Every structure is written in C-alpha cells, then in structure tokens.
Amino acid sequence: MWRERWESAESSLHSLELEVRRTGAFSISGGDFDRWDLEIRVGTTGSVRVQMVIEEHSGQKQYVRYRSWPVASKRRLALAALLGIMALWPLFSGVWLVAAVIGGVALLPLFVAFLDCASATFALQRALAKLEQREP
Q1: How many domains does the chain have?
Q2: Domain that residue 127 falls in
Q3: Which of 43, 98, 104, 131 could be a cystine partner for 116, CB 3.0 to 4.6 Å?
Q4: Residue 131 in contact with residue 19, Cβ under 8 Å?
C-alpha cells in the first residue's frame, strides 16, 4: 500500500487492528519476540497471522507491505491425524464402509480449520481495502 503521508508503524498497526475488529473478527497483537505483528481470528480452529514492513521514501512517503499466512489449531490437526490413523485399522481389515466413515469424520476438523483460516483472511483483505480507500 502506497502512502503519501508519513505514519508510524505502531499507528499503522493500530489502524489495521481497528479495521479488522470492525469486520467482526478478533485480533491479537504480537509480542516483542513473535515473528508476526497481528493475529486475526474469526473462529476457534484457525487464524491468519500478519507481518507488516514499512519502506520509507523521500518526501515523507511510505510503502507498506503486509505478509500473511494461515495458522490452524494444533489440537484440531492432531484430532484429524488420530482419526485418520484409526481409519487404517478397518481399512486393512477389509471393512471399507467403516473406514470411509471414520476417514470422512477425520476430514471434518480440517475443513472447519480451513474455513476459519479463509474467513480470517477475508477479514484481513476487507480491512486492508478500507485502509487503502482512506489514502488520497
């Protein structure tokens, strides 16, 4: 995002956090030793983490870059892995229907985590679009 006026990094991050909360998402600021600046959550099983970098240019102009990546709940991933492993026993025993049902249930936590990460990413995109509209 290109800015014609200077703004501090803390103020920029605070503005993003306020816009994210206006979309209905929950946000958590990163600590001093975290590799991310803001975590955005919509559900309980997935989130998106954001890292912000500001390039200073002449004339008090700035170029702000945002990097984001999804983060799924480790408990949900462990539950999906456990159910997937449990589906192997009926599969090797020749009980295909039971293996398919357990395998399908194993995919549910992954699907919910995917939806939560996608919703958080959408909230981030909407907040960034609103911030970009404010710039002259």
Answers
A1: 1
A2: 2-134
A3: 43
A4: yes
pLDDT over 70 at 44, yes or no = yes
Burial of 96-131, coded b for 16+ CB within 10 Å and e otherwise, reads eeebeebbeebeebbebbeebbebbbebbebbbebb
pTM value is 0.84
d(CA 24, CA 31): 23
Cα–Cα dist 128/50, whole Å:
11
Q: What angle do CA 29, 33, 38 make, to 5 degrees?
A: 20
